[in-house]
Amino acid sequence: MQLTPFPVTPVKQSRLSQVDFDDLGFGTIFSDHMFSMRYEAGAWTNPQILPYQALALEPGVAMLHYGQTVFDGYKAFRGLDGVARIFRPDMNAQRLHQSCQRLCIPIMDAGELCDIMIQATRQLIELDHAWLPSQWGHSLYVRPLVIGTESTLEVRAADSYCFIIMTSPVGSYFNNLQKGVSLYVEDRFTRAASIGGLGTAKTAANYAASLLPGFKSRQQGFDQVLWLDGNEHRYVEEVGAMNIFFKIDGKVVTPPLGGSILPGVVRNSVIALLKDWGLLLEERPIAIDEVVEALHSGSLEEMFGAGTAAVICPVASIGFKGELFEVANTPPGELTLRLYDELTGIQYGKLEDRHGWNVQVPIP
Ligand code: COI
User: Fold this and answer.
1) Ligand 1 centroid to residue 166 C-alpha, Å
2) Three-state DSSP state, 113
3) How far is the C-alpha of 86 from the C-alpha of 115, rounded, in Å?
4) What atom of ligand 1 comes closest to residue 307's alpha carbon?
5) pLDDT tens sequence across 154-177
6) How far apart are the first and last CA of the chain?
7) Who lines ligand 1 at CB under 6 A?
């Protein structure tokens, strides 16, 4: 349902002239406007578009201490035809809804949340259309964020919240389609508990848990951590910034969404494309020993990650228990490249959007 437009307070002076669109990086530049809504006295109120600005928070706000915060991420692409396309925001709204429920945030129903997010994103794109990058591979990253704002040191859900949607012109997260990334297989630290934890929610705690292992893996020369399950450190889970896929002996394998893995929107899209193409896909637990064996025998044909920020990213090598394994046929393998081309083709409006994934916004 399209809602009536939210009230807008425009910026007095745009910051656009300070942006170097040839050097965007990821997530360090924020567009002129943001969406804001508050939860007070038991109701969500005051949805509006404001200049991007600092939030005033007391140091006693419980969220800063106990982490009652969730976020999500999706992208809008400037099409070759002058239309902006938001990629699958309904999926992100659903996931944000689930994350809110897991973190005890009193969110409205999922349909209403989805309508609000799409309407807010439309307006932000219309207002800040000049911030939408035009270079292929670049996009406007949309980051919804919900935080508890009550000042209390009691450990319980807050009674007030702030919901922000900000946008950021970005390049790709890894920018490594040609070279691929190297992953350190983490067999000591855990990203998320196997049963009953926070793994499926997009919440700060999972990312906080990844900081030290990520730092250590970079010290050893790796780009990212490949997480194993929290119980036995035996089964492959995900890469934090992306879900993981293997092509072994002609079959594509990805770990199932068992409660500790983030249900990625690009993961879901990759699975849909593989099904469209009639390729064999197995969603099943995959032990790291099976991956190592496939690397040894040469049957591991391709390995890639899939994520909103990361897009489709080939894995060139993995480090496990002191050994470095090169993945054959990368980067990028034939399937990896096909998926990258199909996905980005749909996102930029170059290829047919068979599944109706895009929400189109005419650029003024
Ligand atoms: C995304 O892909 O949207 C993510 O949230 C990954 C991020 C932590 C950079």
Assistant:
1) 14
2) helix
3) 13
4) 2
5) 999 999 999 999 999 999 888 778
6) 22
7) 73, 173, 241, 307-309
Does one domain contain both 115 and 256? no
137 and 256 together in one domain: no
Which residue's entry shows tokens 């190297």?
A: 182
296 alpha carbon – ligand 1 mean position (Å): 32
- The tokens for 171 are 């390049």
Quick one: DSSP state of residue 175?
-
Q: Are 343 and 335 in contact (CB under 8 A)?
A: no
The CATH number of residue 31's host domain is 3.30.470.10
Q: Which amino acid, residue 138? A: H
pLDDT digits (tens, 9 = 90+) for 121-149: 999 999 999 999 999 999 999 999 999 99
Total number of residues shown for the chain: 364
Q: Are residues 191 and 306 in the same domain?
A: yes
Amino acid letter, 351: L
99 and 206, same domain (yes or no)? no
Contact between residue 77 and residue 139 where contact means Cβ atoms under 8 Å apart: yes
> 118 and 200 share a domain?
no
Q: What is the pLDDT along the chain (364 residues), one digit of tens a residue?
A: 778 999 999 999 999 999 999 999 999 999 999 999 999 999 999 999 999 999 999 999 999 999 999 999 999 999 989 999 999 999 999 999 999 999 999 999 999 999 999 999 999 999 999 999 999 999 999 999 999 999 999 999 999 999 999 999 999 888 778 889 999 999 999 999 999 999 999 999 999 999 999 999 999 999 999 999 999 999 999 998 999 999 999 999 999 998 899 999 999 999 999 999 999 899 999 999 999 999 999 999 999 999 999 999 999 999 999 999 999 766 789 999 999 999 999 999 999 999 999 999 999 8
Q: Nearest to residue 89, comparing CAs of 364, 362, 358, 361?
A: 358
Which protein residue's CA is at the shortest distance from atom 7 of ligand 1? 241
Q: Which domain holds residue 270?
A: 181-332
In angstroms, the CA 300 to CA 248 distance is 5
Which amino acid is present at 6?
Answer: F
DSSP 178: T
